[in-house]
Amino acid sequence: MRIAIVGNGKMGKLVSALAVERGHSIHTVVDSSDNEGGRALTRERLSGAEVAIEFTRPDAVVTNLERLIALGIPTVTGTTGWTEALPRISALLEEQKSALLHAPNFSVGVHLFLHTARELARRCRGHPEFDDSIVEEHHAAKLDAPSGTALLLQRQLTAEDPSRRFPITSVRVGAVPGTHTLTYNGPYETITLSHVARSRQTFAAGALAAAEWLPGRTGIFTFEDMLFGETV
Ligand SMILES: NC(=O)c1ccc[n+]([C@@H]2O[C@H](COP(=O)([O-])OP(=O)(O)OC[C@H]3O[C@@H](n4cnc5c(N)ncnc54)[C@H](OP(=O)(O)O)[C@@H]3O)[C@@H](O)[C@H]2O)c1
Does 106 contact ligand 1 (Cβ within 6 A)? Predict the structure, then answer.
């Protein structure tokens, strides 16, 4: 596949390297130098790209998505911190009959963790003696807090057990790629469920798998749609 990379930071670089390793070609790399307001995302520059993979920043992603959708380029984005714009982006996709797959976390393990966490939340309904909490840890340079994954976990868990709030504590430290822990604290015992990403490579592999899956589809998808054929 010919892939356009939008955002040449830690994730953009990892995805490019993995894509080449897997026999894909990099059609273009759009970095921040000439893309203020998405102006580098033109028909000429993107012509021939079969899919775009976008990893930028919360303040750049929405404009980038608007441009890519308008050009009809199937797009995978892992950028976090823009969920408030989702209804507008969904409407645009519907209008343009284009395709977007978005996920705050492209690790397969995190999605297995989410399934298990939902099951635990179902089992803990009706046990008010257990206090619920979520802690997420990420590297010090992460811009948004709480993490998109922690918010997704919280949303899914409150849907399972509306009597709880699942408050999130965010820790920003060192070079941690991403750790999420759900805890139920009882008077005499503690249940913890954790997912620890040991390398960003897991996110790059998932984003690339999504980019291989998306072309030919129309609409808005999550990584869970791709992995399990469902959105929770
Ligand atoms: N979904 C997942 O699995 C997953 C995994 C890891 C990270 N993330 C998220 O993905 C995003 C990127 O993470 P990262 O670790 O790659 O961050 P990063 O290393 O800071 O890279 C972001 C890059 O985007 C560039 N950029 C900013 N505005 C741009 C624009 N308008 N057009 C093109 N490029 C632009 C930045 O360039 P400058 O430095 O020149 O501004 C920077 O190189 C974050 O939101 C992060 O939370 C998601």
Answer: yes
